[in-house]
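1st attempt posting a full record on here, be nice pls
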Amino acid sequence: MQSTSRYDRQTRLPMVGQLGQQRISNSRVAVLGCGALGTVAADILARAGVGFLRLIDRDVVEWTNLQRQSLFYEADAAAGRAKAEVACERLQLANSNVQYEPVVVDVTLDNITSLLAGIDLVIDASDNFALRLLLNDYSLKHRVPWVHGGCVGTVGQLMFFSGQGRPCFRCLVPQPPPASAIATCDTAGVLGSATHTVASLQATEALKWLTGHHEAVRSGVWSLDFWNNRSREIEILPALSDACIACGQGKLEYLEAGREEASGDAKILCGRQSVQLPASGQAVELSGLADRWQELGQVQKSRFFVRLTLADELTLTVFRDGRTVVDGTDDISRARTLHARYIGG
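the predicted structure (as tokens):
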């Protein structure tokens, strides 16, 4: 079949047509995270004909990914291959007309500008709030739109942020929530069909924007409970934007040098195979964290910290001020991944 007919069913849509398809083909999109959301969103956008896809992820494929991360196979998990690299290889087989760029890196204040340079839209498929707040500040400064998505358990949410002004993600989440209040896929589980649906909806909002149909983009936070058959859309009120530090007051704190949670001031501890991740600035409710960990490994709790020891001898120790020490690795990216999985943030 000739490549000219590849997008036939898409261009037949009156809201796309040949002009919309050309706009899609001229677009450059970054997918921030190649997990359950990122793999599905990237697959849809690649098949839709987005001209350039930059896939950014710090992690490798593991066996627990295969239940929902649709671009990966058993051989990838067995070899522990980099997610971004594997995803680009698979997408190349689906649509060789697209230009792919895999980037295996931990996104921080120091590199976010170079990573997103020349990008028209970002898909948020990340796994922590600090990174989303950093992305939000970048979006406001450079006027780059992005589509937020998240899914834990059987509940997901998404929202489109234009980067052109109000509202912004910080209107919705003024500060990163404390670790004890955050469930993650590793602690609460996740339904594969739920992540696929959220990612599909993210890709849909992206295609609306890329084809020039900005009026069709959803304006509120769309929350869906797939198991209990509930859906609701929440508008961000103007008063929240007025009070917002970022879009209301113009203070892009997560792009300011010296802010620990933005710059990610992690340290490899001298003489130990350990990484210390900085405190979030918020006290951690240790009992709640210990309760969430009970089924995951050996849990030790004191007045000052709570510790989880996993089957592979990796240990996470969280102190009351939010500081975390990951024992068993001296790889900062690996430590961040473990923190996101078992603590959140």
